[in-house]
Automatic annotation (TrEMBL):
It is found in: Cytoplasm. Residues 772-865 form the FDX-ACB domain. GO terms for molecular function: phenylalanine-tRNA ligase activity. Its EC number is 6.1.1.20. This is Phenylalanine--tRNA ligase beta subunit. Tetramer of two alpha and two beta subunits. Residues 41-172 form the TRNA-binding domain. Pfam families: B3_4 (PF03483), B5 (PF03484), FDX-ACB (PF03147), tRNA_synthFbeta (PF17759). Coiled coil: none annotated. Binds 2 magnesium ions per tetramer. It comes from Brachybacterium fresconis.
Length: 866
């Protein structure tokens, strides 16, 4: 996110004299450049110019010599806070006494003094304090203490504004040093969207400020003198053997030489200050100039030590096995898609100088001994640069700009601007020869009907507003017929490729505030829908049972299906594969909520949890086959019904699912003993709790299905519309192989329910049940049935047989063994009988028992166990 110092912005756009950072940020936000942060003045308080009257060196016991200095800081600030009994040189003159450890100044020099109450960068407050036997009443400042970097003179010490008692100096004791040094500058940090890469420069932001306020804008490109080259300079060859569909990796390469730069030349203080304000660290004159021009114009530059470069310079793709040690001192193995800058040291294109548009190599970087420079200013393909920067995890200021698009008209101008600044502050000469290889890609014209803006945005725009807005952003607008324009975007706006892009610019510049906000009217009194209430009820039921809700990302790896033990024909293997996944090792969308919930359980256990009891309500997706493809309808009109049907048919089958995982101890231990562990019965009970919370009833049948234990899991069903039953989930103990795969406690159990189907099966109207006023009667039955008969079928037969007297039927025991024979099982039910008309007699209870036994025998062949 670029930082915009207001004084720098004011060089290209006319800012009001009283403009504040907040006001500038507000103006920029009107054209889509959102404020991120505002940085106030670097220094506040009384920072003044002082003249050194006298100084006395005082050796200390630690071998260090400090200076006791008397400084004239002007009539308004000359106060003596030191001990009056201490003999002080210059005490007869109004001054302040300050202790200073630097030695690069003498009596008569003008220096910068921070008086008590000053706050320096880093929130460093200055106060009078006792030290070295004196009361130091302030501080004499260095450039680093003021956030200005090293002194341009190269001396190690405080800032010396003027030497001796020379006349005609631009400052006097007591003058405001904050204004003198530009330390009152405010800085606005803005957020730039990916399509507005030109705003990563002062030039671009100043243009947008002009659009927002109508202020005069001076394009800095027009102020750069670009002489006619005397001929080609350093030989450059553009060889891109693997261009992308968007074009070659490098479409233009400018090389310009500068000879005889003074390697000891210092970066001017104003430039170093601007770089610091913009968030960059000043390094050396050559590097600082390239960074300054990049920040100002938006064109990244790279400077090579000319003595280390062997012509010709070759731009090509990487070869197998090539490596590069970049400027951050990291050796990187290059990829065949990387675009490289190479030279011919050892053969044509043999030595790698840098990754194009990302970062240079250390072999040819400028050093303190560099005198001759080759300046590179190029136009690189955004996709190529972005992929290389991400592949090598090497984001840079250059790559930020290249991957968003750089003005292809800038390279020659930017190279000359940087060369002129180097010569101005470092001496030397600019070579008259310039290499300019490649071509400038011209923007493609766009046809725009005058009524398109009104049709898309929904409000009326006059022809003058349409044409004026487009010309304001730099477009060339020609008429083609009475109601049609042919618009050619400017070179710095590669994002303008469609008529909708132009419409967006018209709406932006005329003003988003002109578009009325129409909010839908919310109907009153409806509250939550039935489904919303049901989801909250199911959530609350599991929370009250002691589980914790978690959130897991919906992405899974290819190997998850094998880890869960799915068969090859299991429909849960039909996962949606993402074209651009967040992580390469998780390219699929989950088809079961347990696929992402079990890893969450493993992560919690790995971080110290002794047991797990978690649940989640989220979506799952199953693809509709590998051949399902969604059409892409045209943006010019509403999709047809046939297109919409085809789109919906290609979408994956999605549903909202509830899943839970429980394992380990079901509660904390105590002196009374350890709690019971979670088990398969708890998973079934939790499923029933969730179903009861939404008003549905589950039927449980034994079923073998991954990832559950083959003998300790059940299939969960609900009554279907046709009188049968529909599977809505499964619950039980997880398979031991799955438990081991995810490092879970022994016999960890789980459940998974199709919550949407469960809610849909619940009755929409809940009927109130009268409170019983007569006592109940209890009867127990144990029926021997075939092993294949589900308990739910026996339970249903009991209810039918007893009729209205059956208040509740509950299965409390299942037995298999030698006493009842092979292939059979005993199901024991507890039945509660009650009548709404009176107390049940012994005859009524006996009749109900007989009806129950007969019904079970008739329906499922069950025999009452003796």
């Amino acid at each position: 996110m670029p930082r915009i110092p207001l004084t720098w912005l004011a060089e290209h756009a006319s800012l009001p004299s009283d403009a504040s950072a907040l006001q500038v940020a507000t103006d920029l936000s009107r054209v889509g450049l959102e404020e991120e942060t505002i940085f106030g003045a670097q220094v506040t308080g009384p920072l003044v110019v002082g003249r050194v009257l006298e100084l006395v060196g005082e050796p200390q016991k630690n071998g260090k010599t400090i200076n006791w200095v008397r400084v004239d800081v002007g009539p308004e600030h000359n106060e003596d806070a030191d001990d009056p009994q201490d003999p002080q040189p210059g005490a007869e003159r109004p001054s302040r006494g300050i202790v200073c450890g630097a030695h690069n100044f003498v009596a008569g020099d003008l220096v910068v003094v921070s008086l008590p109450g000053t706050v320096l960068p880093g929130d460093f407050a200055i106060a009078a304090r006792k030290t070295y036997g004196h009361t130091s009443d302030g501080m004499i400042c260095s450039g680093q203490e003021l956030g200005l970097g090293e002194d341009p003179s190269g001396e190690d010490g405080i800032i010396v504004l003027g030497r001796g008692h020379a006349e005609g100096l631009s400052a006097a004791p007591g003058d405001d040093a904050i204004a003198l040094l530009g330390l009152s500058d405010e800085v606005v940090e803005i957020n730039v969207t990916p399509d507005r890469g030109y705003c990563f420069s002062m030039r671009g932001v100043a243009r947008e400020y002009s659009h927002a306020t109508g202020a005069d804008f001076t394009d800095p490109v027009t102020t750069v003198e670009v002489p006619t080259p005397a001929g080609p300079g350093v030989a450059v060859q553009l060889h891109d053997d693997a261009p992308l569909p968007s074009g070659p990796g490098c479409s233009r390469f400018v090389a310009l030489e500068v000879h005889g730069v003074d390697p000891t030349a210092q970066t001017p203080r104003w430039m170093a200050r601007r770089l610091t304000q913009a968030g960059m660290r000043p390094i050396s004159l050559i590097v600082d100039v390239t960074n300054y021009v990049m920040l100002d114009l938006g064109q990244p530059l790279h400077a090579y030590d000319a003595e280390q470069v062997v012509a010709p310079i070759v731009v090509r793709r990487a070869r197998a096995g090539e490596e590069l040690t970049t400027l951050d001192d990291v050796t990187r193995r290059l990829d065949a898609e990387d675009l490289l800058i190479t030279d011919s040291d050892g053969g044509e294109g043999a030595r790698v100088l840098g990754i194009a548009g990302v970062m240079g190599g250390e072999d040819t970087e400028v050093s303190p001994a560099t005198r001759d420079i080759v300046l590179e200013a190029a136009t690189f393909d955004p996709v190529t640069v972005a992929r290389s920067a991400r592949r090598h995890r090497l984001p840079s200021e250059a790559s930020k700009r290249f991957e968003r698009g750089v003005d292809p008209q800038l390279p020659l101008v930017a190279a000359h601007r940087a060369a002129q600044l180097m010569v101005e502050f470092g001496g030397g000469t600019i070579a008259p020869e310039v290499t300019d290889e490649g071509t400038v890609q011209q923007p493609v014209a766009i046809t725009l009907a005058l009524g398109d803006a009104e049709r898309v945005v929904g409000i009326e725009y006059t022809p003058a507003q349409v044409r004026g807005s487009l010309e304001q952003i730099g477009c060339t607008v020609d008429a083609s017929g009475e109601d049609t324009l042919v618009v050619t975007p400017p070179s710095w706006r590669p994002d303008l490729t469609l008529r909708e892009d132009l419409v967006e610019e018209i709406a932006r510049l005329v003003g988003y505030e002109k578009i009325p906000s129409v909010l839908p009217t919310a109907p009153g009194g409806r509250g939550l829908t039935i489904a919303q209430r049901a989801r909250r009820d199911a959530n609350r039921a599991l929370v009250e049972a002691g589980l914790t809700e978690v959130a897991s990302a919906p992405f899974v790896a290819d190997g998850i299906f094998d880890a869960f033990g799915y068969t090859e024909d299991d429909p849960r293997r039909e996962a949606v594969r993402l074209l651009n996944p967040l992580a390469d090792d998780e390219p699929l969308l989950r088809t079961s909520l347990l696929q992402t919930l079990l890893p969450v359980a493993r992560r919690n256990l790995g971080r110290g949890a002794e047991s797990v009891a978690i649940f989640q309500i989220a979506g799952t997706s199953i693809a509709r086959g590998t051949q399902a493809r969604s059409p892409i309808p045209a943006a010019s009109q509403r999709p047809t019904d046939a297109e919409l049907e085809e789109i919906l048919g290609a979408l994956p089958a999605q549903t909202r699912t509830l899943a839970a995982v429980v394992g380990g101890a079901s509660g904390p231990g105590s002196w009374q003993g350890d709690p019971a562990p979670w088990g398969w019965a708890d998973a079934l009970d939790l499923a029933r709790r969730a179903a009861m919370a939404v008003g549905a009833r589950l039927e449980v049948r034994q079923r073998e299905i991954a990832p559950f234990h083959p003998g300790r899991a059940g299939e969960l069903r609900i009554a279907g519309a046709d009188g049968g039953s529909v599977v809505v989930g499964h619950a039980g103990e997880l398979h031991p192989a799955v438990v081991a795969e995810f490092s879970l406690p022994a016999r960890t159990s789980a459940l998974e329910l199709d919550l949407e189907a469960l809610i849909a099966s619940a009755p929409s109207v809940v009927r109130a049940v009268p409170v019983p006023t007569y006592p109940l009667a209890k009867e127990d039955f144990a029926f021997v049935v075939e092993d294949s008969v589900p308990a739910s079928a026996v339970q249903a037969a009991i209810v039918v047989g007893i009729g209205d007297l059956a208040e509740d039927v509950h299965l409390f025991d299942v037995y298999t063994g030698d006493q009842i024979g092979d292939g059979k099982k005993s199901l024991a039910f507890s039945v509660r009988l009650r009548s709404a008309e009176g107390t049940l007699s012994a005859e009524q209870i006996g009749e109900a028992r007989r009806r129950c036994i007969t019904a079970v025998e008739t329906a499922v062949g069950g025999v009452l166990r003796a």
